[in-house]
Every structure is written in C-alpha cells, then in structure tokens.
Amino acid sequence: QQQNNNRKLLGSDLPIAGSCTYNNSWTGDKSCMNFHGESWNLDAMVERCSSEQDGVASQGVGCEDTSDDVSGWCVKDVSTAATSMMSAPEMKEEASLMMV
What separation, in Å, do the N-terminal and C-terminal C-alpha atoms of the chain show? Predict the structure, then answer.
C-alpha cells in the first residue's frame, strides 16, 4: 500500500511477486499490473503478460504508482483451488492501476 498526496492507494495484502508493463489497448497509454502472491513464478508472469499488447514482465519489481493521475488499484483474484486434501490453494491476485 502506497501513500500518494495524502491518498492511500489500496491494493492487495499479498506480497508483490512482479509486474507487467504494457500498452493499454483501450487508452493507447502505457499501463501496469502487479502480480501478488508467492504462487506467481516468472513463467506464469510471462505467460499472463504475453496476453497484453507489448507486455513485459518483471520479477520482484512492482508498478510505479506515484503519479498524480493514479487513483487506486483494481484487484482481481486469480487463485486456483486446491487439487487435493494435501495441497493448499494457490493465492494469486492481479492488481491494475486505475487512472483519473
């Protein structure tokens, strides 16, 4: 969670595993999403990021959210269910910057 001009930008409570910078096909501007959760590995981040226009994945680095145009995050739970009684669910979230 970041502080930006006295505004708290709420995101995920899970740790940042990496991020994806890409060209937003709707706005034509650069955008970024964070990958939250220890279940994200580089291959999964690259695979998810490749579905975005000109997506570039970065492991261990979060999105820059200090711009005055940032209003918060859109967080999406992309966790997978446990596959057996012995395994735990994979906690994964994507958090995209929301701009004003």
Answer: 18
Name every residue whose Cβ is closer than 8 Å to that of residue 71 and which is 6 or more positions away in sequence: 7, 9, 98, 99, 100
50, HSE (Cβ side, Cα atoms, 13 Å)? 6
Residue 43 CB-half CA count within 13 A: 0
Q: 10-residue block means of pLDDT along the chain (100 residues)?
A: 45 85 87 88 94 94 75 75 52 72
Q: What is the pLDDT of residue 11?
A: 65
- Looking up tokens 């929301």 gives 98
Q: Which helix (H) or strand (E) holds 99?
A: strand 93-99
| Segments in the chain forming alpha helices (H) | 42-49
Contacts of 87 by beta carbon, 8 Å cutoff, 6+ apart: none
